Amino acid sequence: MEQREQVLCAILDAGELLLTAGAEVARVEDTIRRMAQAYGFGRVDVLTITASMIVTAQAEDGAVLTQTRRILRRETDMRRIEAVNALSRAVCGAPLPLEELRARVEAIRTMRDDMPWRIPLAYLVISGSFAVFFGGSVRDGLAAMLCSMVLYAIGRMGARIALQPLVLTVLSAAAMCLAAVITVEAGLGQALDKIIIGNIMLLIPGIALVNSLRDMIVGDTISGLLGACEALLRAIAIAAGCALVLLQLGGAV
Question: Threonine/serine exporter-like N-terminal domain: which residues (predicted)?
Answer without folding.
Answer: 11-246
